[in-house]
Amino acid sequence: MAFTKKKTDAQELPEVLPVHVGFIMDGNGRWAKKRGMPRTYGHVQGALAFRKLLRYANEIGVKYMSFYAFSTENWKRPDDEVHALMDLMRKYLKEAYEHFDLRTRFVLLGDEDGFEADLRQQYIDIQKDTVDFERMTAGIAANYGSRNEITHACRELAQLVKEGKLEPEDITEDMISQHLYTKDMPDVDLMIRPGGEQRLSNFLLWQIAYSEFYVTDVLWPDFNRYDFLRALLSYQGRNRRFGGV
Ligand code: FPP
Q: 89-129, pLDDT tens digit by residue?
């Protein structure tokens, strides 16, 4: 499935809803610290926020969502925090089967080989079992790093060149997109970062070329449907020019 956006005059106006919304789910640790709780409790609350948001976005008709759940750099966190995050993924991947009414396809954005065997299998299964759902696609970025993803795509294309199946001058931007974890998803329209930090943290660098950004000080566990609506309203007030005038 290729998504080449046609750039017409009409695109000076934002589409009513962003087609693809990205979330950098930041602020769980600070949320917990403010309450004298361990960081892992912040992640538990963050996972609840994720679940609520997924359902709400599904209700209002957002077609693609990407959630940054665990980066390739997050392995450096203390063992108990890494384990807690892995267990939360196990829990929510299992629970996803109770939410098939959402008709949501789940896609792992990241390298599944980095996980323990059971979690790896859960990711394989949920992707297979939801592959035909067309109402919404939810990308879960786990063991994900954008530079790593782009490097991986370059290696695959280089291999095709080596095998004589592709000429270097025939490599196109679309081809690179098709070798990323997001190959079945369009570029990101709106990137939302709760927690107030103004950085991308190695998330979807290729896919955000023309994204609109929305940063809020609200911490991720507190991010609710009204915060999401505020982000959507902000998006609707933007003038997207895609490099034009
Ligand atoms: C960043 O906040 C958040 C993470 C590294 C983990 C995000 C994970 C979840 C919301 C839960 C699991 C996800 C799924 C899909 C079930 P931080 O800990 O860096 O916060 P801080 O900046 O306040 O320290």
A: 999 999 999 999 999 999 999 999 999 999 999 999 999 99
**Does the model's pTM come out above 0.85?**
yes
Pick the residue whose CA is nearest to atom 7 on ligand 1: 69
Q: Cα(201) to centroid of ligand 1, in Å? A: 12
Show the tokens assigned to 209: 């070329």
Residues in the chain: 245
123 Cβ inside 6 Å of ligand 1 = no
* Residue 120 exposed, middle or buried by CB count within 10 Å (0-12, 13-18, 19+): middle
Q: Is any atom of ligand 1 closer than 6 Å to the C-beta of 214? A: no
Nearest-10 crossing angle of helices 39-60, 79-95: 30
Q: How far apart are CA 65 and CA 5, in angstroms?
A: 17
Closest by alpha carbon to 137, among 217, 78, 79, 66? 66
pLDDT in tens, 16-44: 899 999 999 999 999 999 999 999 999 99
Question: Does the pLDDT of residue 5 top 50, yes or no?
Answer: no
